[in-house]
Design brief:
It comes from Streptomyces levis. By secondary structure, the chain is mainly alpha-helical. It is built from twelve helices and three strands, in the order βββαααααααααααα. About 25% of the residues are buried.
């Protein structure tokens, strides 16, 4: 109870806290307590149980790359990189990866919109099928493509009989194999961006008389452009490094289907220094693309 000499607004209550007590003014605890940390102070220490595994993870990812740089034959590197086979494989890799990314954009963005905006029976099954190439071994994906699009495949036999189109062991087959393994990265990225975007903008466009496709083209696409760009970069990088599905479905023919990963594998069997040089080129291209385009486009989100 307050005494007769207490002033209004300066009431002081005592809350017992063992042998000591802390003073509360106006019914609120003071911001600074004796013997305790200051209010608002944030601990910045890293627990040792988290720091050691984190450092181990960094070392696990960086040591192989450092080893590649250390073992690079720098003296013979110019000679290795100026060979016609290297530039042929690099040009084919860049061309096929870009074409596979374009295919993924054309059919992957509408697929992502369907999964994010339309509620239809079996949507969960379709999403599982779309993401299956992420966990499917690439060689198994190549075998599946052969069974579907090969000369005797369930679709390929009709493509050959009706249109004279043969995909296996061709440059077009490389594009198909790379698109098969790379498109899920684009679909997942775009679908996540669509789910985060506010659908009321599309609804407002529809109330103004815009068709569903016009609203998608004029409203939705600008909103999700950073997600599309990020997904395209990830898909391009995945297509650039594809090996298993490519060698199974398209083979390893220099100048036609031999991409950089296949050239690295072939050179490793006979000329390890050439394999290291090719790996260094592929590493440099991947780092340049991800560090340049991905940082710029993702920062716009």
């Amino acid at each position: 109870m307050s005494g007769p000499n207490d002033r209004p607004g300066d009431t002081a209550d005592r809350i017992p806290d063992g042998p000591r007590s802390r003073r509360v003014r106006g019914g609120l605890p003071s911001r600074r307590l004796r013997g305790g940390p200051r209010a608002g102070r944030v601990r910045t220490g890293v627990p040792l149980a988290l720091l050691l595994p984190a450092l181990l993870g960094v070392a696990f990812l960086t040591v192989p790359l450092i080893a590649l740089l250390v073992r690079t034959p720098w003296q013979s590197l110019p000679e290795q990189l100026t060979s016609a086979a290297v530039w042929q494989a690099l040009r084919l890799s860049l061309l096929c990866a870009t074409a596979a990314t374009a295919v993924s954009l054309v059919i992957g963005v509408p697929l992502a919109w369907l999964l994010a905006r339309v509620d239809f029976p079996g949507r969960g099954v379709v999403r599982a099928v779309v993401t299956l190439p992420l966990v499917l071994p690439p060689v198994v994906g190549g075998v599946a493509l052969l069974m579907a699009l090969g000369r005797n495949g369930i679709v390929g036999q009709w493509l050959d009989a009706w249109f004279g189109i043969t995909l296996p062991f061709t440059t077009a087959g490389v594009v198909v194999a790379e698109a098969f393994v790379a498109m899920p990265f684009l679909v997942i990225s775009v679908e996540g961006t669509l789910r985060a975007a506010d659908p009321r903008y599309e609804e407002a466009a529809a109330t103004l008389g815009a068709s569903r496709f016009t609203a998608f083209r004029r409203v939705t696409l600008p909103l999700i452009a950073p997600g599309i760009a990020a997904g395209a970069v990830l898909a391009w990088a995945r297509a650039l490094g594809e090996f298993g599905a490519t060698i199974t479905f398209a083979g390893n023919f220099p100048g036609r289907t031999q991409t950089m990963p296949l050239a690295v594998y072939l050179a490793l069997q006979s000329d390890p220094e050439a394999a290291i040089a090719l790996s260094l080129v592929l590493l440099a291209v991947s780092i340049a693309v991800l560090a340049g385009l991905r940082d710029r486009w993702m920062s716009a989100g």
